[in-house]
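notes to self, project folder thing:

trying the whole complex as one job this time. last attempt i did each chain seperately and stitching them together was a nightmare. three parts in total, labels are on each line so i dont mix them up again. if this works i'll redo the older ones the same way
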Amino acid sequence: MRGRPNLYTSYSSESRLFPTRTQQVAIGIAFLLLLLMPFDLPVIDQIPLIRFLGDNSWLRIVNRMLIFCIAALGLNILSGLGGQVSLGHAFFMGVGAYTAVLVGGPGSANLWGWGLPIWIWLPASGVVAAVVGILVAPAAVRVRGLYLAITTLGLVFIGLHLSRVFPEIAGPGSLGRKWPKLELRLWKEENPILDFSRDGHWFWFDISDNQKTYYFLLALLTVFALWAANLARTRTGRALAAIRDQDVAAEIMGVPETKYKTIAFAISSCYAGVAGALLASISGQMPPEAWDLILSVEFVAILLIGGMGRVSGALAGTFFVVLSPRFVEEIIEWMTKQAEGDGAFSGLWDSIISLGSGDFGIVSISETALGYPIPYSALDEIIYGALIVIFMLFEPLGLYGIWINVRNYWKGWPFSY
Amino acid sequence: MKHLSKLLAILLAFTVVAVACSSDDDTSSSSTSAPAATEAPAETEAPAETEAPAETEAPAETEAPAEIIYDHGVTEDTIKIGAIADLSGPFAPLVVQIIAAQQAYWDRVNANGGIAGRDVEFWVEDNAYDVPTHLERYEEMSDEDNGVVFLSQSTGSPHTAAIAEALVEDGLGAIPLSWYSGWPDPAFGQNVFESYTNYCYEAINAVDYLATNVIEGEVKLAVLSYPGEYGQDGAAGAKIAAEALGIEVVYDGEGAVVPGADQTPVITGLTESGANLVWVTTGPSLLAELMGGAAAAGFTGTWSGNSPTYNYMLLATALAPMLDSSYYQSTYVLTWNAGDTPGMADMVSALQEAIPDDPVSDAYTIGWTEAMAAHQILEAAAAAGDLTRAGVIAAANATTVDYMGLAPNQSYGGEVNDYIVRESYMFDIQADLFDAAATISGGGSTGSVLMNGGPIVSDITAAHVYEGACFTAG
Amino acid sequence: MTEIPMLLATSGFDTFVQTLFKALALGSLYSMLALGFVLIFKATQTVNFSHGALALAGTWFLSMLFIDWDIPGRFIPGPSWLHWGIALLLAMTVTALFGLIIERLTIRPMIGEPIFSMAVITLGLEVIIRVIADDAVRLTPRALGIPWGSDTFSLGGALVAWSYVAAVVMAALVFFAVWRFLRTRTGVAMQATAFDQEAALAQGINVGMIFAIAWAAGSALAAAAGIFASMSPWAAAGVASREGAFFAFRALPAVIVGGLDSVVGALAGGMLIGFVEIFAGQYLSSYANILGFGYQQVIPYVVMLIALLIKPYGLFGTEEVRRV
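result (full assembly):
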């Protein structure tokens, strides 16, 4: 009887975060791999798919993925757990980012900034974003479904307008301003105690700035992910699930709708604020136009592709959506090499890739292509859109649904029909 | 729950220990090449001047490859040059043509023997006009093992500003695809090697030229611009000119033109102000809306704007007659097939061989001149025997780039006020010279006719003491 | 030296007339866009986020038909404006067919799934269609051959652009056509399907065909709106360009204010938002410093928020009756 999922023999075992032994071991191994990934260690080197992600040029995009994970977890709490459609996630990220630069950035003649250390500005970005979320929540109580989606869309445009009204906070349009770096100081001194944005030396080995940022973000993500996973099994989480499924019935049963919708918006905005502040900090300079509708839609796509409502779904979806453009490029490069070489199937690859003008192919590797054949920089976006459509058509539960199907197949084998 | 809090406690303890045992160094790993940098300037002074101006294509076989020192981005056979370009974002159509011209230039260089006997590998990546993506591409290109020795293009002002510090740390140089007046400032863009003049000076030159030579009677200036570093830099220049010439600015729309919104408030303000000269710093579609909307409200006046505001393709729209009669184009380089210079003849014939079926465009000149600058800098570095990244930077600071008449010649070393480029070009629009279906093979024109026979420079610009960007973020 | 004479509307009344025509035109464009959204939502309960991309595709088709292939000019003699009108109808038809294909491939299999999923499929479609259409129109911006170009005529002291009048006329025709359609058998069947799909099925209505008709009509309307929004003096100035695609998102507040499933609401909402945007842009322009430049972009959303707080389902939308 031990080890079978969904068979619980006590209440405490049902509400545990990682109920089965398999899950505990798997999470443990995954975490260990994540910790060791950026380093050139002999054992890790043998694992083909994981190791290259730790290379310096990949680490930056992996860091961005970790930040997007935090934001996606926030949206998951609001939309997946709470059932509130929101297209305004980019707005809350912007709020967090601008709080961070206001509290932590250097002030000057044209720009406001108080220059406080990270242990003030990072939590402040979360708190202020949560407060703004609380202010927005009453609209969600009044308005439902697609109307709510478009209302939150309006927030993005209002945010963009406010950034133009206050260039003292946001910096001039399309240029932005410099964000405070990820450095730990006690209070405004000259040299930081811990600097995540420059190469350095820990214990006995050299460590680069991307690797340090990776660990910092991994630690933050772990905390946030555990918090999000835990939320689902608390009273708040169950209340949100009740509201998502049938809010009128929930209200009748004694679950106050306004209170819990407000809590959902607050927590989700807090996540988004922190993620926005981190994204701006590692980018160094963000124009106000970066917090736009396309960013909001990307998070909705992440949740849908990964699986709405599950923490693992949000993480898997982020991995997929953020890294897939890079994977597509690597695949196209590999195909190009095959097409140019004399391998067995080079003819096949040559027919797909167009090496230059006049060469037949569906995808063109020439950077100067426009129109047909499709340049590979446009291919990223087309694949992104196609993924959304395909997942919605064939697997509405997303990657999590695919995983469930695979797991059930193997659990029931050889009786998998 | 107990297990969870235990786990967190262990993690916290580990972190505290790690923090206590760590140390950071401020110097970057590329500081090992610092000694080479101190030697290079003494060598590059003399040879650079004699070699750089004349040739763009003669092979530098005189320098045996074995004598040249190099570190990242250069091998015995190849020199890697990078470009981070917007290939799928808002500026893609133009940037794609710019890259096409650069690619044609480097192909010709390779066909003629390369640089110092090495082939040039031109590596282009897409940043989709997104700052985090730009940083990721930069990370790839600045990699010590697989990276480049010089960036011949970095698209976008915020993007280049985001990598400006990293460029100094990594010892890499980059040519920006942006003409913000902050790049010549060593405090803002030390390893950023800007091309041609900037939005601010261009505006001063053009407003002065038009007020003096084209407008009759008292000039009343209206300034319309995007918010942000591009729009407000150009607006700042127009206002500097107005103040120096005693022109009244009757409508100040600096930062008032917001893309994506209906432009009625701006058009209203403009038409009610009674202006007769309008300086616009926006993009082509906004220019179309402003000119069309103002004409529909009865406005008649002279229009002009910074170079990115106008796109010759507007002559294919319903706006063509109005552009012909009331718009004067200002640019940093010669437009397609305009002017009578050796550089233009050279470029046109080269592109006719390389990409004859592509449409004519003003964008090729920009890519061609960027590549010329990068080429001459690398030739100078090779002549000095130092193709390390630091050596290339030193060569750049000591070279004068000769654009063969396509643009005013450019150098980067010494006192800013001595080397900053102050000239720009002014064009009249003639719609009947433009043919939307024309390709490069036919030569042709994009409808711009050069005025003044060459570059213009205003007395105000010539006398201006550069102390940093005209428009500062703060 | 003599001053250059200005042909400006000097009197307040002339300014008002100019503003009125511009507002009518923008209101008509928004109403057409809103009507497309509403038709699709009424029948299939989906918000079609790819409406803007379909508008861009419509302008691309018109350019290909009229300019590149010279249809119907090569078959029928006659004046150029007649050919343009026929090409316009043909472009709308082609876009309708395109919408039919999309509906059959991606929306039909999704019947029964939650509404949010269907809306997200349209988001995915938007990316695909926009990237492909954008790619096609970007390399050489495609002229649309609009018969009246950027001409204007004077009404008293006021100057009015012909494209404003054209937009109003087109919207009137479109609304009239839809109104007549809703009185036919098929139109009544569509309203029945919108009310209750299962009951309509039970009554023998071919719900699948209703979906197809709704999508085709919605796509055709998107094409028409996109073409008329691409004229001078709107931003696209008479060429097919991405400005036409993003224009559709400006109409979302109009859709919401009117109510997602009301034809009357589409007209009312579109006109309301159009008037507010233009009149606020005209008469509040001197307060731009206080309101912040670009306030004209935010005002529709503010109006939408206020309207929603008063009537959460839009001014004319049907209130959702939720049974537990």
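what i see at first glance: Confidence is low (pLDDT under 50) at residues 1-7 of chain C.
need to look closer tmrw
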